[in-house]
């Protein structure tokens, strides 16, 4: 009998007016059971100048965060180059290719969604979403960006709350981070 699927998370990043915020819900589900309700899936990197979030396997995501920080050390202050280099290594390395996670990495100037399939996407509108409730959070964030003057952090919180009200694998225990100056 196969093990139940672990579904862990919704991550949303919003860039607006020279500011950015990233947030994630706290739910981890195993099959049709909530295993944890207050997980933290977003974290600051490089002293808080870069913020990141993950969806998928925790151990795999931690490995990817470490690899990404190595790229940031190699290319200081150049988030796009670090993201490209991680995506290339992730896609070509036989061990990394098996990692089951997706990342959003962002600073005040750039934001990227990365996956082991070779995706490296920087959206035109500054809104990035991954995970089980990602499409719901992204739709809510787009509406809020178009129709309100809210800050990125406020948009992330409200959009993730909406996703948590719709997606059974997302809750409303939300963590929101903004980069430090």
UniProtKB/TrEMBL annotation:
Its EC number is 3.4.25.2. GO terms for biological process: proteolysis involved in protein catabolic process. Na(+) binds at residues 164, 167, 170. It is found in: Cytoplasm. GO terms for molecular function: metal ion binding; threonine-type endopeptidase activity. It holds the Pfam family Proteasome. Coiled coil: none annotated. GO terms for cellular component: HslUV protease complex; proteasome core complex. CDD domains: protease_HslV. The keyword Nucleotide-binding does not apply. InterPro entries: ATP-dep_Prtase_HsIV_su, Ntn_hydrolases_N, Proteasome_sua/b, Proteasome_suB-type. Allosterically activated by HslU binding. It catalyses: ATP-dependent cleavage of peptide bonds with broad specificity. PROSITE patterns: PROTEASOME_BETA_2. The active site is at 9. Keywords: Allosteric enzyme, Cytoplasm, Hydrolase, Metal-binding, Protease, Sodium, Threonine protease. Protease subunit of a proteasome-like degradation complex believed to be a general protein degrading machinery. A double ring-shaped homohexamer of HslV is capped on each side by a ring-shaped HslU homohexamer. The assembly of the HslU/HslV complex is dependent on binding of ATP. NCBIfam families: ATP_dep_HslV, PRK05456.1. Belongs to the peptidase T1B family. HslV subfamily. This is ATP-dependent protease subunit HslV. The gene is hslV.
